[in-house]
Write a structure and sequence with these properties.
three-stranded mixed beta sheet, two-stranded antiparallel sheet, 5 strands, 44% helix, flat
């Protein structure tokens, strides 16, 4: 008897989890498409990448820079150490800020 109750509980919980996951996924998909549509409709506003590309490369004296995205840790991103040995600007993979060694330019 205990094994039949256990089987029914397992069957019920697996079917409920699938339904819940499907509902949650469809809700997220709707939110993402609405957010993207908002950016696509208004062509007078610049995209986040266009705004970041307008920031000139930040000149740094040393060979390595630590990018945190913002001076306030709550608004930044995980710290990334970027090597600046190349002549072209190095880009932070989190925020897109560009850094260059001061003696290269």
């Amino acid at each position: 008897m205990a094994s039949s109750i256990l089987k029914n509980l397992v069957k019920f919980s697996s079917s409920t989890a699938t339904t819940t996951a499907t509902r949650s996924f469809s809700l997220v998909t709707t939110q993402i498409s609405n957010h993207t549509a908002k950016w696509m409709q208004d062509t007078s506003k610049k995209s986040p990448m266009e705004l970041i590309n307008e920031v000139p490369p930040i000149k740094v004296e040393g060979r390595i820079v630590a990018c945190e995205g913002d001076t306030d840790p709550a608004l930044g991103h995980p710290i990334e150490y970027i090597c600046l040995d190349l002549a072209k600007p190095a880009v932070c993979k989190y925020c897109g800020l560009r850094y260059v060694q001061d003696h290269h330019h």
